[in-house]
Design goal:
The chain is mostly helical. The chain is 69% helix and 0% strand. The N terminus is likely disordered.
Length: 496
């Protein structure tokens, strides 16, 4: 080949199923690469900065304890992802797992839910990249820059991220990994120094269940907020085709990254609570992200690094998250579950360029429609159209759809193993754990969809229902026109 790649190095094969020739660059990522990409997708600084204050106010003093529970719930979900990947590693991730278990119609429906959910969630990240940059310039009152609208910064960073992702998975993954390493170092340093400086406030109170507001009911309300901190934990599964030995490395990456993030979040939460001397009311009323306030109290001007960690976190989450999530819809397009143009790869770089551009384009369109809606509705104020508002709204809606996919995957695991690998079926790993994981997902799903919320959150469940109904109609219609879809779901195995 003129570009220097060989068919073997690209993992290309003689096509034997539709889409087989649209292969990604196989085996170029290792365990550290995909684990770092997963944690970059989670974006601990971004998630913690924008999520912890609300979690703490909702939970009370024992917010670190709720984070521990959320980490355990994610580990249960990780078991489902890992057990599927051991026998059928696929770039399609949940779409493949559900489709191979319950059939073509369910697979196509899952593809729509997955694509819509992740695009909505990623739109929130795209917005907050610009929003966080704007907030830094405004906080430091940088002349000429503090008045630049956040959407301008969003477009600049989006263009940078798109170029890096199209260039290749190795380049973009390493960039996301470097961003993650920087944010994690800052978060850990600030937390440890805070515990030393405010050691007189250290106690076990943040881990005492009695300190959860409202007891068990309060825990149930706060639990979804803690689970949201981990969104992105499933990143490595969609990188299976580009990962060396995915059957082993993807499960390792899932559990390693989840455990590291759980320990990290507990440390950050505990240090923030101690930094506010256990005063949750003061913490919740802070105009800045509470962690940054703690950093300012310790390091003064050097706390700029905490702001910078938030910036690199959002950008790393944008790159790592889009890389992974766009590959899910790419595989669905490659196998014919979604329009085929989405399933095309760049002829030399072997990146899913169409899926990446489609994913980012639709995300940007959602931001534009949201802004237009505020203008038409007469709510075009600086506060109403802030990136932070959009982040909260779009991420919440996207999370509802993603949680439905998580639930379907947990239900699918025991059926899949019973049907396809009865000799490997383990009652605990393939029966008990996924059912407990399913029940765990029902808690945040219920509290995100229950009636009585404030606008616009109160109509999100109905919007999610509309997406689900349209997805089912599309699936039924598509399978009726092309019955062979059932054979193509999961037909492209990552390491074959």
């Amino acid at each position: 080949m003129s570009d220097g790649f060989t068919s073997e190095s690209l993992g290309a094969k003689v096509p034997n199923v539709p889409g087989e020739h649209e292969r990604l660059h196989q085996g170029v990522l290792g365990l550290i690469d995909i684990a770092a990409a997963t944690m970059a997708n989670i974006g601990p600084a971004m998630s913690f900065y924008f999520g912890f204050a609300f979690l703490a106010v909702t939970t009370g003093l024992a917010s670190p304890l709720v984070i521990v529970a959320a980490g355990v719930a994610i580990l249960l979900l990780g078991n489902t992802l890992s057990e599927f990947t051991k026998v059928i590693p696929s770039t399609g991730g949940f779409i493949t797992f559900v489709g191979k278990t319950f059939g073509a119609r369910t697979g196509v429906t899952t593809a729509i839910l997955t694509g819509a959910g992740y695009i909505a969630a990623m739109a929130s990240v795209i917005a907050i990249v610009g929003g966080f940059m704007q907030s830094i310039f405004q906080y430091y009152a940088v002349p000429g820059l503090q008045s630049v609208p956040w959407i301008i910064w969003t477009l600049v960073f989006l263009a940078f991220a798109a170029v890096m992702m199209i260039r290749g998975i190795s380049v973009s993954t390493k960039i996301a990994g470097v961003f993650f390493a920087f944010e994690m170092a800052i978060l850990v340093i600030v937390s440890i120094v805070a515990l030393f400086k405010y050691h007189q406030s250290i106690s076990w109170a943040p881990f005492n269940p009695k300190n959860i507001h409202g007891g068990l009911k309060g825990f149930a309300v706060a639990f979804p907020l803690a689970v949201y901190l981990f969104i992105g934990w499933e990143n490595s599964a969609a990188l299976a085709e580009e990962t060396d030995n995915p059957r082993k490395n993807v499960p390792k990456a899932v559990f390693t990254s989840t455990i590291i993030m759980t320990l990290g979040y507990v440390l950050f939460a505990y240090a923030t609570v101690i930094g506010f001397k256990n005063d949750i009311t003061k913490l919740g009323a802070d105009a800045l992200p509470p962690f940054i306030t703690v950093a300012l109290g310790i390091f003064g001007g050097a706390a700029f690094l905490a702001f910078l960690a938030g910036m690199t976190s959002t950008l790393g989450a944008l790159i790592a998250g889009t890389n992974s999530q766009a590959r899910l819809i790419f595989n669905a397009g490659r196998e014919g579950l979604l329009p085929k143009f989405i399933g095309k790869v760049h002829p030399t770089r072997r990146t899913p360029v169409n899926a990446l551009l489609f994913f980012l384009g639709v995300s940007l369109a959602i931001i534009a429609l949201w802004g237009l809606g505020h203008i038409i509705g007469g709510h075009a104020t600086s506060s109403g159209m802030s990136a932070a508002n959009f982040f909260a709204e779009s991420s919440t809606f996207g999370t509802i759809l993603v949680l439905i996919v998580y639930a379907l995957s947990n239900l699918a695991l025991p059926f899949y193993y019973r049907k396809n690998h009865p000799d490997k079926f383990n009652a605990f790993r393939h029966g008990v754990v996924p059912i407990v994981g399913f029940l765990g997902i029902c808690i945040p799903l219920y509290y995100l969809t229950r009636p009585g919320g404030t606008s616009p959150y109160n109509w999100f469940p109905y919007a999610a229902l509309v997406v689900l109904v349209l997805a089912i109609i599309y699936a039924v219609t598509l399978v009726a026109r092309d019955p062979g879809i059932g054979d193509r779901v999961g037909s492209i195995v990552a390491d074959e």
